[in-house]
Amino acid sequence: MDDESTTCDNDRWAGATPTLSVLIPFKGDDPTRLLAALDTEIQPVEVIVLDDGSGDDELAARVDAAVRTMRLPARSIRLAENQGRARGRNRLVAEARTDHLLFVDSDMLPDTSTFLETWVQLVERQAPAVAFGGFTMLQTPRRAEHELHRRVAAGHDTLTAAQRSASPARYVFTSNLLVRRDVFAAESFDEQFTGWGWEDVEWGIRVSQRFEIVHIDNTASHLGLDTAAALASKYEQSTQNFARIMQRFPDEISELRLAKTARALRRVPGLVIWRRALRRIAVGHVLPVSVRAFAMRLYRPALYAEVV
After folding, report:
1. How far apart are CA 266 and CA 83, in angstroms?
2. Torsion angle of alpha carbons 168, 170, 176, 180, nearest 10°?
3. N or C: which end of the chain has fewer CB within 10 A?
4. Do both 143 and 262 map to the same domain?
5. Residue 301 is part of which domain span?
6. Is 176 within 8 Å of 135 (Cβ atoms)?
7. Reported confidence tier of residue 52, pLDDT bands at 50, 70, 90
């Protein structure tokens, strides 16, 4: 690899012959709680975590310590500089030793004690090209500063397998995603996507044109909800990524409610002023959370109105 990195393996790593590789990228978030949860299961699984340029020596030391004590074969990799979400995940795949790759975000926590077992059984029984397990907020702590994000995500992202299967490519997120290696070799993540958002959806659309995407109910809770200001910042970062996916897949993206709303808002006089007002309402703490969440839901397509 051409990037500067350090690697830490535990004693179980050498000589292990796993069936499934669990790949966990992180930048700033602490993945040790997830590592501990995964290590409660004894399955033919290897775990690889990638610190994508966090620059935090204390965090890196905690992760290395957790990896060394795991019963599952595990490796941690620390990059000196941030490589981005797509490139970081491509690096994790290069390190994996199995033909089945399970991407799990570092701020996730399995909802059952048979999370890995379910994935391993699916691999052994069906070996799907792509499968998404879904996510929930069942174990997500209730905090006032995260309540807006919870409202925005509830009912839209936390869907059942049956609901997601109605539009398989739309609900492909790297938070809990199984990919067969030959599929990834044919279609890796586009490293031109930088910042936050849409690289997984773009990948899902691209893959769905060649392979079947399966949805199952093997969920993990999303623990890492954002403050309103952080969520607004992520939406702002994602605008150019949305423009990129819109250009590449105009028919598919145009059918999304988000794109339709963005086109409608484009015709609103004084949109720039309205957009600033929506952000102030969403990020402020004056109005009820329901009103602020509605403003945040409009703020995102108001940003995308510039590129549809």
Report:
1. 34
2. 60
3. N
4. no
5. 226-308
6. yes
7. confident
What's the whole-model pTM score?
0.88
Q: Tell me the CA distances in angstroms from 306 to 264, 300, 303, one per residue in order.
A: 11, 11, 6
Torsion of CA 123, 23, 91, 179, to 10 degrees: 30
CA distance 151 to 34: 24
Task: Give the model confidence (pLDDT) of 184-219 as tens digits.
Answer: 999 888 878 777 888 888 888 999 999 999 999 999
Q: Are residues 59 and 197 in the same domain?
A: yes
Backbone angles phi, psi at 14, to 5 degrees: -65, 130
Residue 1 binned pLDDT confidence (cut-offs 50, 70, 90)? very low
Is residue 213 located within the same domain as residue 256?
A: no
The overall average pLDDT reported for the chain is 92
Under a CB-based contact definition with an 8 Å cutoff, are residues 244 and 193 in contact?
A: yes
- Which stretches does DSSP call E strand in the chain? 5-9, 20-26, 45-52, 74-79, 100-104, 108-110, 130-132, 135-136, 176-180, 213-215, 220-222
Q: Are 134 and 217 in contact (CB under 8 A)?
A: yes
The string of pLDDT tens digits covering residues 122-162 is 999 999 999 999 999 999 999 999 999 999 988 677 899 99
Residue 3, class by beta-carbon neighbours within 10 Å (0-12 exposed, 13-18 middle, 19+ buried)? middle
